[in-house]
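Work Package 3 (structural annotation) set out to generate three-dimensional models for the target panel prioritized at the project kickoff. During this period the team completed the workflow that converts sequence records into discrete structure tokens, so that structures can be stored uniformly alongside our sequence database. As a representative example, we reproduce one entry of 282 residues exactly as it appears in the project archive.
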Amino acid sequence: MKKLSLLLFVVMAAFSTQAQITTPQPSPFSKLEQKVGLTDVTVEYSRPSVKGRTIFGDLVPYNTLWRTGANKNTIVSFSDDVVVDGQILKAGSYAVFAKPGETSWEVIFYADTQNWGTPKEWDESKVAAKTTTQVYPLPVSIETFTITIDDLTNNGAALGIMWEKAYVGIKFEVPTVAKATKSIENAMKGLTANDYYAAAAYYLEEGKELRQAQEWINKAVSMNDKAFWISRKQSLIYAKQGDNKNAIAAAKRSLAAAKEAGNADYIKLNKDSLKEWGIEVE
């Protein structure tokens, strides 16, 4: 009998160690990755839901430090130094805390990311940056807490937070101009026509030193005058400087090459530009 009891005990113990119950988390984990300009931005956070509750001013009290999500504190990581409200955030990871208000939030980037919720002891020396941002009321209720990266440009974006009927956006700037310029300057020797084209196109888009852009695009055209996209960009750079004569010549060259290649998009683009510059083309 003792042997039978021992055997049953061993079997039950083995079963209990192997059995695992898996159920959905009430605030599931989420990871957001976004390239902003040339900077990698990652957000890791947990997503609670409203579930019929009043959130701001009740579940999340006004003017009280909040983890900005659920479970472990929300973490944002930047691959480069970024700027928030004039303050430099060094490349790395930060916990995102907030003090929500009815019309504005104070948002804090905190250097210690190893907290479950808010820190037991707040250390002001670990505050890397803080800013105040306006609350925008939403026309519909957002059931599940959501973080986004909005308003993307080459040089920055906004870290968006929305839940219930509130949205806030924390703007940040990334060092794209400095990184791209350095890359262009370091790589100008031994480049292809498309390299010169890419550098010129970037300078045109950013409104930087059009004479330099002109030099690069002219170099690209001299290396490949059958590339209709390159001649097209050359025409736009000439036009941006008010040189319609050379802009027209470049557009005609691009148009001819586009026709030869059968590229309808560039045929239309060049015809539209030539018409804008007073030249009718069949």
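The two ends are 103 Å apart (CA to CA).
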